[in-house]
Design brief:
By secondary structure, this protein is mainly alpha-helical. It has helices at residues 56-83, 87-107, 119-133, 202-234, 236-242, 244-273, 277-282, 302-310, 346-354, 379-382, 393-413, 449-468; strands spanning 41-44, 49-52, 147-152, 155-162, 167-168, 174-176, 181-183, 188-190, 195-197, 332-333, 341-342. Strand 10 and strand 11 (341-342) form a beta hairpin. Mean pLDDT is 74; it is low at 10-18, 329-405, 407-414, 416-420, 427-451 and 463-469.
């Protein structure tokens, strides 16, 4: 009676590896467009808040308004409400909340940033510029002019080309050097609000400085009233000692009210004439340039100009800063048979559909008999998805001949051996039960350790060559 068969250790060839061709599917969280925004802006609250990068002066503005108003509500309003009328604190509260609302709306919104051209759009625009200006014909190369001329209400307006955004700027647009963006109807970059002032937030900026002028004058006037009324009872020096916060409020309001009132008056003039700060500083519509130079955007009426600037419909944002990035990178695909393959983009899918890899050819490895513990090399080729990138036909034929040459010695080495059927194949260690028919079989022919090692090595080599295809 032959000795009982010893339990053999099996080296299982797994289909999952660390190579990118067979990596399991991982769901990646799509990135938002504001995370890769090309301009120099800061975003908060998942892209809902958009500000300039330099926001130090904005926080100073916020502190001055909040601290001055807070001191007024705490130290002056109780005395004024009892002595004069409780309407004073109510009016101050309404002005304070209106100022804060317009300030935050101006600082946190998109001023009207124009989206940059994509690579295809920029290349097409460069081609149009070269064709329109005849560059490349004639003698040496001349850089084409980067301007276009359009006529608006009978006035010739030049559109300048932006080398950063790769676009021709629309009329009244300009590139902000601090934010590195082209802004539609660019007025100026205001560090006090921490943002550019353009088409989409100009009305809120104007209402902010106008309401801040009223609030500053209101606080300054009633702080002086508070000090005068208190000094009539206790004397001027005692009044200052009893309410030192009123002195601080009066000083802050006195030195800031002049600049705020001047800024409000200047922008009131700009709105009434339908101009921007950028146009006024450059003198774009000044009569000094030419006799026929005039502002083509003015309606000729102060009331109409003010309504167009403050009451017109608010244009939508042109940048989808909270949208998800449409990635063209390949993603892994899990077919129904459980083998993880590597997917491709749409263009690669079309190429693979036109030239399927080894799907209609019969593999020479199909002639082999099944070997326990050995993975059939032809199975991955039969389960390739159409989305998998395909090599040229010459590469696939060379790889097929190489695999065939590597597997022929294996087939010759295994001749003369009796291979086990799937029903007779022994289980892995620890799975055999005593008394099972498999342990008492006398017709089994077990491969020695050298043959198993060579088979395992050839199988791995075949899989590596197949994955390289």
């Amino acid at each position: 009676m032959p000795p009982p068969m010893k339990q053999c250790e099996y080296s299982q060839i797994t289909t999952q590896s660390s190579s990118p061709m067979e990596s399991p599917k991982k769901k990646k969280i799509p990135r938002k467009k504001w995370e890769v925004f090309p301009g120099r802006n800061k975003f908060h609250c998942d892209g809902r808040i958009m500000m300039a990068r330099q926001t130090g002066v904005f926080y100073l503005t916020l502190v001055l308004i909040v601290v001055t108003s807070g001191l007024f509500f705490v130290f002056d309003c109780p005395f004024l409400a009892v002595t004069i009328t409780p309407v004073i604190p109510a009016i101050a509260g309404v002005l304070f909340f209106f100022v804060m609302g317009t300030l935050l709306r101006t600082s946190f919104s998109d001023p009207g940033v124009l989206p940059r051209a994509t690579q295809d759009e920029a290349a097409d625009l460069e081609r149009q510029i070269d064709i329109a200006n005849g560059s490349g014909s004639g003698g040496g190369y001349r850089p084409p002019p980067r301007t276009k001329e359009v006529i608006i209400n009978g006035q010739t307006v030049k559109l300048k080309y932006c080398f950063t955004c790769k676009i021709f700027r629309p009329p009244r647009a300009s590139h902000c050097s601090l934010c590195d963006n082209c802004v539609e109807r660019f007025d100026h970059h205001c560090p006090w609000v921490g943002n550019c002032v353009g088409k989409r937030n100009y009305r809120f900026f104007y209402m902010f400085i106008l309401s801040l002028s009223f609030l500053t004058v209101f606080i300054f006037a009633f702080v002086i009233t508070h000090v005068i009324l208190r000094s009539q009872k206790t004397g001027f020096l005692n009044a200052l000692k009893d309410s030192p916060a009123s002195v601080l409020e009066a000083v802050v309001c006195f030195f800031s009210v002049w600049s705020i009132l001047g800024l409000s008056g200047f922008h009131t003039y700009l709105i009434s004439s339908n101009q921007t700060t950028n146009e006024d500083i450059k003198g774009s519509w000044s009569n000094k340039r030419s006799k026929d130079n005039y502002n083509p955007y003015s309606y000729g009426n102060i009331f109409t100009n003010c309504c167009a600037a403050l009451c017109g419909p608010l244009p939508p944002s042109l940048i989808d800063r909270r949208g998800a990035i449409q990635s063209d990178t390949p993603q892994s695909v899990a077919p129904p048979n459980g083998i993880t393959t590597y997917g491709a983009t749409q263009s690669q899918s079309n190429m693979a559909a036109a030239t399927p890899l080894l799907q209609s050819e019969s593999s020479p490895m199909n002639e082999e008999l099944p070997v326990p513990g050995k993975m059939t090399i032809s199975s991955p080729c039969a389960t390739l998805t159409l989305g998998q990138p395909t090599p040229p036909p010459s590469t696939s034929s060379l790889a097929t001949e190489t695999i065939l040459a590597d597997t022929l010695p294996l087939k010759e080495a295994c001749e003369g051996h009796h291979f086990l059927t799937p029903e007779e194949a022994p289980s892995p260690p620890g799975m055999l039960t005593p008394g099972s028919p498999l342990t008492q079989s006398h017709t089994m022919h077990v491969l020695n350790a050298v043959t198993q090692d060579s088979m395992h090595e050839d199988s791995v080599r075949g899989l590596v060559k197949l994955s390289s295809v």
